Amino acid sequence: MAVRQNMEQFSKKIEKWSKLFPKEVAESFGNVRTMLVTDIRSNYLSGQVLNVVTGKLRASIEGIIKKTPPVSLSVGTDVKSSKGFGYGAYWFHRGRDFLTPSIKKNLTRIEKMILENIMKSYEKGAI
Fold first, then answer.
1. pTM
2. 3-state secondary structure labels for all residues of the chain
3. 39-97 confidence digits (pLDDT tens)
């Protein structure tokens, strides 16, 4: 039986891996970014859930990878509501409600993708 980890625990793990294996983590984040942005746009920013009028928020969701160590991935948007507050959100426990469910749902999958990439580099002798 797999032990579930919370986002704070996972965030600490990612921080450690980012320092030890920056290239491998950055490469993994490319796939993670695509997966999360697609999931958020299609499953958490749809139709009646947000009373979508223009689709501007959905289209603005993006992932930004900072490749200088420690490597980091931010998922969010810079769109502001008509009342002036920002929808911007970031990786893991600081996310907005429409980002957090996708990230939580995919923690195990994200970890697996990163570990597989680290192991591929290890097998090639790059580490």
1. 0.72
2. CCCCCCHHHHHHHHHHHHHHCHHHHHHHHHHHHHHHHHHHHHHHCCHHHHCCCCCHHHHHCEEEEECCCCCEEEEECCCECCCCCECCCCCHHHCCCCCHHHHHHCHHHHHHHHHHHHHHHHHCCCC
3. 988 887 765 555 556 777 778 888 888 887 788 888 877 776 666 655 554 444 455 56
